[in-house]
Specification:
Layout lengths: L1 H8 L2 E4 L9 H28 L6 H30 L3 E3 H34 L4 H4 L2 H27 L7 E3 L6 H6 L6 H35 L3 H30 L7 H25 L2 H23 L1
Parallel strand pairs: 1-3
Antiparallel strand pairs: 1-2
Helix pairs in contact: 2-3, 2-10, 2-11, 3-4, 3-6, 3-10, 4-6, 4-8, 4-9, 8-9, 9-10
Family: Belongs to the G-protein coupled receptor 1 family.
Subcellular location: Cell membrane
InterPro entries: GPCR_Rhodpsn, GPCR_Rhodpsn_7TM, Olfact_rcpt, Olfactory_GPCR1
Length: 319
Amino acid sequence: MAHQKNQTLNVEILIVGFENLSDYRIPLFLLLLIIYTLTCIENHMVIFLVCISSRLHCPMYILIGNLLLCEFLYTTDLVPLILHHILSGRPTISHLGCSVQSSVSGSITIVETLLLTLMSYDRYLAICRPLRYSVLIHNRLCFYLVATSWFISLIFLVVVFYFVINLEFRGPVTIDHFYCDFTPYVSFACSDITPVVLIGLSVSITLTILPFLLIVLSYIFIIFTILRIQTSEGRQKAFSTCSSHLLVVTIYYTALFCLYGVPRSDQYLNVYKGLSFTYFSVTPMINPIIYTLRNQEIHIALKAAMSKIKTVLLLRCNK
């Protein structure tokens, strides 16, 4: 048993997603590096503003800050190793590394789904129950809900990691993808994968599909409420408060459902890989732009932060 465990731990996983793009290694590396750098800068900037600006200490921006933290963690879980694989010429990962990568990416997806659901509830209260908004959701309650979301994802991470790390593999494993994709990797296992499959199925239903239905229900109420507003100016103002979140939700679930809806056959493999590349690299870069492009509160907070930094620099120069 110990010998089989050591064999599994020493299994080498070969990631061959970029095999057909070897002639474009350098441009691809530079493109992904630029996207990742912009993603880090954008997400950290918004998170920093949410932390330091008292104007942004409210449920909506607390949720946005945590959502962008998820985006940063998700892309960081995948992209640095992918950049290494592009340049190395031998893109391999250990069984332990693959287990960590797939478990972390799955748990972050759960947090992001739960946060998007909480944000839809926040927008529902702001538009449909404005007079009771501060009673029904406040900073302390928001903190508890966010902490619960992270705790649920942590439990998922630990449970999935335990089952995946204890799967048995023999010989080298080849995955035709950019990273250690959970489904094809588990399918190579020689031991029983039923517990892992059941966990994945139950999580997909309870923490992905159910939150999606709750988000749809929230927006049905929001749309009916907006349509009942008599003035076009009032309708436009109400819609603008949830347009950013609606766009992010649409992009997120469209990408998610396309990824899981595309068959994993050789015929559609390139389509699946292209959607995956967009999901883990481009989407985390776009979301901060969506939330900040027309958000006056963040613009004001950014100007105030820049003014403080400028003042500090001037004082230091004068000394």
